[in-house]
Amino acid sequence: MAEQHLLTITSRGRGSVEITDEIAALVGYAANKNAAAGPTVNAGIAHIFVRHTSCGLAITENADASVRRDLETLMQRWAPDGDPAYRHNQEGEDDMAAHARSLLTGVALTIPFADGKLLLGAWQGIYLFEHRTQGHRREIVVTLLG
Amino acid sequence: MAEQHLLTITSRGRGSVEITDEIAALVGYAANKNAAAGPTVNAGIAHIFVRHTSCGLAITENADASVRRDLETLMQRWAPDGDPAYRHNQEGEDDMAAHARSLLTGVALTIPFADGKLLLGAWQGIYLFEHRTQGHRREIVVTLLG
Amino acid sequence: MAEQHLLTITSRGRGSVEITDEIAALVGYAANKNAAAGPTVNAGIAHIFVRHTSCGLAITENADASVRRDLETLMQRWAPDGDPAYRHNQEGEDDMAAHARSLLTGVALTIPFADGKLLLGAWQGIYLFEHRTQGHRREIVVTLLG
User: Looking at the 3D structure of chain C, how many domains does it have?
Assistant: First the structure.
């Protein structure tokens, strides 16, 4: 099986948007559909891919929002906005910083599932990290493989 | 084919634990079992996922242990323990640092295999990096797709 | 379906080599071959894995080469060559830095495809990042899963 969906998420500027429920719903839907049609997909992986270079995807702690605030603090150190060394700055001080942050977390995630449920740990959430200061419409391709 | 296994690894506190042999054994076992049952799985990927947010998985050099010690040195710079800027520190000075280190390497790996063998390079090992100072029991889901 | 190919790329020393066209060609070839043989592979993921620990793979902006130059600037800060704290330095000042850079981006990428085409965004390119100062022959395993 390989099943593919397109999600569109609109960010409100720099920060994280949780998408765990959206991915879990696609995995649950696929399991139910296949159960009716014939052989059930018992196990596999969900692949999540964002089609941009100035945002990223990451799995991190889902209980205390200050974790994601502290990650922002660190990302600002790792790739400061408006660093004088940058040559790529056409779109503003956050332009190159956003590409660098995107490199560090990457633009793809893979998560195992079984019996229609993601096998995330209790404290794991799936997040889109918007790295631009302005909000953007972000396209995410979800592929379920089993 | 999609085949799934749960591994449990007990870490002894901050540092790396090699799990290459455990993953290789699952890939070898799957190849033999399928050879007996019918169509052999000739090629695919092994997906390794740790169900926690304060440890991580990484592939790195397997010959000289000082590589992993030097990586610890760098991770301490990238996400210092007890940084005064952190707001998330309920579980101690290593709490937020562990989440940040986990973000940098990620919690999932994918490795190709063929004919029952991982296609790692000669110097590549698979490691669980424990980022907390105390040891923990860590659950790893391994999914073989082919 | 799982289909596997070996690519060999020769780098000219530190810097990035775009491999988007090579991966796209393998995906296109697989779709055509399967269309002739029987059931078409409509959707899946391309898995790209480099079998080394001193180079890496990353998806980043493909239009302005200064993005990749700025990423080099940042990587030099994240993992400086010849840092006095390193214990692993047998192969020179770039040795440990290369392993650390490899850890940050990772050695594997996964990209969705459908109907014989990679589902990359308009500004996304696939790059091999050579982290050693000398050029090297790098082996890349490409696995198509659908």
Answer: 1
